[in-house]
Specification:
alpha/beta, 14-stranded mixed sheet, four-stranded parallel sheet
């Protein structure tokens, strides 16, 4: 919308809710599913799967325990466990007991502790593994979760008689680095579910999978989409979702609805797992990815909802093209204060094809019951249950075709030469480069004088198959040529950081705070887009691979690559270099090859090394030689598993960190000591023996020689 225009700046609510089921709370809708189909699966999690009847019984028992323990109506109960089945049981129990639930992040203890600090809950529902991580010494009431809890199992299985619940049903958290707690009432939680139901049209046969963390709104408020419509919620059995685990679950559990973020949708629909990491993967791979029927994981999908961050029109079109005919893909702009509702867009809403799809991010029309106002350029949303409009801090424009277009965020605005601009517009133009799939523009300090420089962080498109990854991305000079005449000179980045993918926070949003900073080189020069700058002689700090020269030893290359690939099987995600800029990503990749080659060398030395050591020191102690042989084997083999375990371990997971230290570091020290003793201990040799004999002969008779 142009400045000063007021016509059509506000979108009213969507369709009315005629014919909807009357209910007081989402708990009423869940209870209806329990009565209608108690034997149907409610939660699918391998051995932890529960039917509606079983889920209701477990929730009732925990609710009785909470009521007996004195949980006041409306009091907040924090839920801190990694097992999604236990989370679902706990949040239903809290609602049944008249309280308000809040799901914590237990994978990142610092985030969970910050969430607790923002809550001050009456009770903490957790398990033994996470109690110590979340315990802040407040002395609050703690309830241990788990089907094995005898105290809870002894409670009645029937629905508890509860007093009138409090006004708040849930406390949801924003995905910012410092999370903000947002209370959501029963009316809003129900209205959000009904609004979602009108858009996605769930059926009892649906199986829903939510890839987001349990503490993020798509799960903490979105569980109702499955359990209040008679569908099944597919969750991981023990550990959190991994990309490979999601694909397997979608295929084996015949998932029909996936709720994910842009990166998750790309991994599921566009990327062949591991293809981007294969040397030589090229156009042939990309060509086969264009067919819809070659991926069994997508066979049953009828709906994919993408939320958490902007989704450009070309990205949405590429994702939609991978789904079977008739399947839907929705770009959802959801607000925490509105329990995950806001606006939604799918390609069928377009009245005609649009030019420059790589520069447009459409968020469509409001959810039923919601209202969107972009009169002053900033988006304000009215939740589905009414009330005051919520300022989102995001920028939007109502287009002539009646669709809302996302235009950036006020918090990302950059001031250059006294003028303020929104980097989203520049990033959209950068994305129009054929070799760039994602871009973020930020400022960095330019010396002690307070001046600042613009940096473009770029990543390749999802289907790129260059090797090393991101090798085809343009440098600073090529990017400036691309932007010339398309954006103001003062808004052209002076440096480029090339990444495999852009970092994202736990909510799926591109994280500017986590972006790596360029290495400053060269001499200070004049500013401006075309000045010499202090980054390189041409004003561009371009991260390029250190080179493609391989190791001259075939053994190193072959075995190193083999064990690098095996790492993806035994330790999924341990060798993921997402967010690491080049040349550092390439150097870490080389490190992984050396670790694998060292492990292979250790295997060879295990079988052939002792004989060589015995030939080298024939008179040595057999026990010390065997110990030194095994020590050398351990020194060679330990790096590969040790480094993989360390990369997967949470930094603040002290039990795991301690176990790794004692399992690897201390044995490495012991092995080094054994080798040191072996090589420094003077071994008897034939020459030493002759000297001794000569000394004896001189003292008591003729020499034996």
């Amino acid at each position: 919308m142009t400045q000063g225009s007021t016509q059509g700046s506000t979108q009213g609510p969507g369709s009315d809710r005629s014919g909807r089921t009357t209910a007081d709370t989402v708990l009423h809708l869940f209870g209806q599913q329990v009565r209608d189909a108690p034997q149907a699966f409610a939660v699918i999690a391998g051995a932890d799967s529960l039917t509606y009847g079983q889920l209701d019984v477990r929730a009732n028992r925990l609710a009785h325990h909470l009521i007996a323990g004195g949980l006041p109506p409306g009091a907040v109960a924090a839920i801190g466990t990694a097992r999604r089945t236990e989370i679902v049981v706990a949040l239903l129990a809290v609602l049944k007991a008249g309280g308000a639930y809040a799901v914590l992040d237990v994978e990142v203890p610092l985030t969970g502790q910050r969430q607790l600090a923002a809550l001050t809950p009456h009770v903490l529902l957790t398990d033994a593994a996470h109690h110590a991580r979340l315990d802040d010494g407040s002395g609050r009431w703690v309830v241990r979760l788990g089907a094995e809890s005898a105290e809870i199992a002894g409670r009645p299985a029937g629905a508890p008689e509860r007093s009138e619940p409090g006004e708040t049903a849930a406390v949801l958290f924003t995905a910012a680095a410092v999370p903000r707690a947002v209370p959501v009432g029963h009316t809003r939680l129900l209205a959000a579910h009904e609004s979602w139901a009108e858009v996605m049209r769930p059926v009892p046969e649906d199986r829903h999978l939510i890839t987001h963390g349990a503490d993020v709104v798509p799960f903490s408020a979105g569980w109702t989409r499955a359990l209040c419509s008679g569908g099944a919620l597919v969750v991981p059995e023990r550990t959190p979702w991994t990309p490979d685990g999601i694909r397997r679950a979608v295929e084996t559990e015949q998932v029909t609805v996936v709720h994910t973020d842009p990166a998750g949708a790309t991994r599921l629909l566009l990327r062949d797992p591991g293809a981007a990491d294969r040397p030589g993967a090229g156009a042939a791979d990309a060509g086969t990815r264009g067919r819809r029927d070659d991926d069994p994981a997508l066979r049953y999908l009828r709906l994919v909802t993408v939320t958490g961050d902007r989704l450009f029109l070309d990205e949405q079109d590429a994702l939609q093209s991978r789904l079977r005919a008739g399947a839907r893909l929705l770009n959802v702009y959801g607000l925490t204060e509105a329990a995950g509702t806001g606006t939604w867009f799918e390609l069928s809403q377009l009245p005609r094809p649009l030019d420059d799809p790589e520069r447009l991010s459409l968020i469509g029309t409001p959810f039923p019951g919601c209202r969107a106002d972009a009169r002053d350029g900033q988006l304000r949303l009215t939740p589905p249950d009414g009330g005051d409009a919520v300022p989102t801090g995001d920028l939007a424009e109502l287009r002539p075709d009646g669709l809302l277009e996302f235009r950036g965020r006020t918090r990302d605005r950059i001031t250059t030469d006294g003028a303020v601009f929104d980097p989203h517009a520049v990033e959209a133009v950068i994305r129009s480069h054929p070799d760039i799939g994602a871009a973020l523009v930020t400022e960095v300090p330019d010396g002690p004088g307070g001046a600042r420089r613009l940096i473009a962080h770029v990543a390749p498109p999802a289907g790129a198959r260059s090797w090393p990854p991101a090798a085809d991305l343009p440098d600073g000079g090529r990017l400036r040529e691309h932007l010339a005449g398309k954006v103001p000179r003062a808004q052209v980045p002076q440096a480029v950081v090339r990444l495999r993918t852009l970092p994202r926070n736990r909510g799926g949003q591109e994280s500017r705070e986590a972006l790596p900073q360029p290495v400053l080189t060269g001499k200070p020069g004049r500013g401006g887009a075309g000045g010499s700058g202090k980054y390189t002689a041409t004003g561009a700090a371009t991260f390029t691979p250190a080179g493609r020269a391989g190791c001259g030893i075939v053994f190193l290359v072959v075995t190193g690559l083999l064990f690098f690939l095996l790492s993806k099987i035994f330790w999924p995600g341990s060798t993921d270099l997402t967010g690491v800029p080049n040349p550092w990503a390439f150097l870490f990749f080389v490190l992984y090859l050396f670790e694998g080659a060292s492990f292979a060398a250790g295997l060879v030395f295990l079988f052939d090394g002792r004989a060589m050591m015995r030939r080298h020191s024939p008179g040595g102690s057999p026990g010390l030689t065997a110990a030194a042989h095994l020590a050398v084997v351990y020194l060679l083999m330990a790096w590969w598993p040790q480094d993989n375990f360390y990369r997967l371990a949470a930094k603040h997971d002290w039990p795991v960190q301690a176990a790794l230290v004692y399992a690897f570091n201390i044995p490495l020290m012991i092995a080094a000591v054994v080798v040191a003793v072996y090589v420094t201990r003077k071994q008897p040799s034939p020459f030493d023996f002759d000297e001794v004999e000569a000394e004896v002969g001189d003292a008591g008779g003729p020499s034996a020689r």
